[in-house]
Design brief:
The complex is a heterodimer of chains A (about 130) and B (about 90). With about 130 residues, chain A is an alpha/beta fold. Chain A has one domain: Rossmann fold (3-Layer(aba) Sandwich). Helix content of chain A is about 50%, strand content about 15%. In chain A, helix 1 packs parallel to helix 4 and helix 4 packs antiparallel against helix 5. Chain B has one domain: HPr-like (Histidine-containing Protein, Chain: A, 2-Layer Sandwich), CATH 3.30.1340.10. In chain B, about 35% of the residues lie in helices and about 25% in strands. Chain B has 3 helices and 4 strands; from the N terminus they run E-H-E-E-H-E-H. A 4-stranded antiparallel β-sheet of chain B has the order 1-4-2-3, covered by helices on one side. Chain B starts with 5 loop residues before the first strand and ends in a 7-residue tail after the last helix. The chains are: A alpha/beta (about 130), B alpha+beta (about 90). At the A-B interface, helix 1 and helix 4 of A face helix 1 and helix 2 of B.
């Protein structure tokens, strides 16, 4: 099953969103949070993100990464550029809608491309 | 060629389960298993049954009658299965 990683400047935001996505997707999807710096401040920890990707990829079916803003995205991009791996994709999607949709889509057994696509389709979803 | 690739049914949400959060996710997950395109309609609004955000935005309340329409080779099985799922949803705690 495709795994999901939520990257945020905030540890609370990453873990809260991961919990929400996990509640909706059920126990079979690996959803990992990577939030804040290693010393507990707001920011991004490249090693922490790499470790989360490693954990989420335990099934070998690929990993979709959702990031919140700016340096979260840049950190993931640089990590993926350093270690090119076709099994890890950064979705260009709003982080809440994207993570929840990706997790539920993964829980249906969809493949990596389908999970990325479902996440990215949420860019056009209106709230009202 | 099959006689018809379209199917439709109605189902009623249990009196204590809104189609939100986990119940909506369970419904969408089940809908994704079918090849047919599937829509769910409630109160004159319609959603793509395979789109979580679309189903969440529909906001179908407990006790509401919904209409399921499917178009595709497994349309009949899709509306039967999903209709039963809607009627049998439970709000799991926690």
């Amino acid at each position: 099953m495709v795994g999901i990683v939520v990257v945020s400047h905030s540890a609370e935001l990453a873990s809260g969103l991961s919990a929400l996505a996990a509640q909706m997707a059920g126990p079979d999807v690996a959803i990992e949070a990577a939030g804040g710096t290693a010393d507990g401040r707001l920011g991004t920890d490249e090693a922490g993100v790499a470790a989360a990707i490693e954990r989420a990829g335990r099934d070998g079916d690929g990993v979709v990464v959702l990031g919140d803003l700016g340096s979260s995205i840049l950190t993931v991009r640089s990590l993926l550029a350093e270690q090119p791996d076709g099994h890890v994709k950064l979705a260009d999607a709003p982080v809440v809608e994207g993570a929840v949709t990706a997790a539920v889509t993964a829980s249906a057994g969809a493949d990596l491309e389908a999970v990325v696509q479902a996440a990215e389709e949420t860019r056009d979803a209106r709230k009202l | 060629m099959p006689a018809s690739s379209e199917a439709q049914t109605t189902a009623t949400l249990p009196s204590d389960v809104d189609l939100h959060a986990r119940p909506a996710a369970a419904f969408v997950r089940a809908a994704m298993a079918f090849e047919a395109s599937v829509t769910i309609a409630a109160d004159d609004r319609e959603a793509d049954a395979k789109s979580l955000l679309s189903v969440l935005a529909l906001g179908a309340k407990a006790g509401t009658s919904v209409t399921l329409r499917a178009d595709g080779p497994d349309a009949a099985r899709a509306v039967d299965t999903l209709g039963e799922l809607i009627a049998g949803l439970v709000e799991t705690p926690g």
